[in-house]
Amino acid sequence: MKGPMAGGVKMKDILAFMIENADLSTALEARRLIPPLQGTFREATTDISYEGYTIPKGWKVYWTVSTTNINADFPAPEEFDPTRYKKSPTPPYMNIPFEGGP
């Protein structure tokens, strides 16, 4: 084999390529689709009405990061599209890979 691939691809070449082509949008999109934190419990601080149900103050509610991050407010929410961050700004609390808030 001749050319740049002669002798196989070296890890240092892969790392150099990744660093040279690094893009924060790609990392944000990867964390949006597969967040490192899947969910957490939150405590209702007041009575909350949601879709006809009442969640009393003090109850624990399990909130999932992944369902927030694939909200229909994202265009094509289940597609991997790093360019979405360059097309328009992300609304607050729409991409929460590590949870957010108190």
Report on the structure:
With 102 residues, this protein is an alpha+beta fold. It is 28% helix and 16% strand. The protein contains 4 helices and 4 strands, in the order ααββββαα. The chain has a two-stranded antiparallel ribbon with strand order 1-4. The chain has a two-stranded antiparallel sheet with strand order 2-3. The chain is elongated. It starts with 10 loop residues before the first helix and ends in a 15-residue tail after the last helix.
Number of helices: 4
Q: Percentage of helical residues?
A: 25-40%
The average pLDDT value, as a whole number, equals: 78
Distance between the termini: 58 Å
Instruction: Decide which structural class fits the backbone.
Output: alpha+beta
Fraction in beta strands: 15-25%
Question: How many β strands by DSSP?
Answer: 4
InterPro entries: Cyt_P450 (IPR001128), Cyt_P450_sf (IPR036396)
Family: Belongs to the cytochrome P450 family.
Keywords: Iron, Metal-binding
Protein name: Cytochrome P450
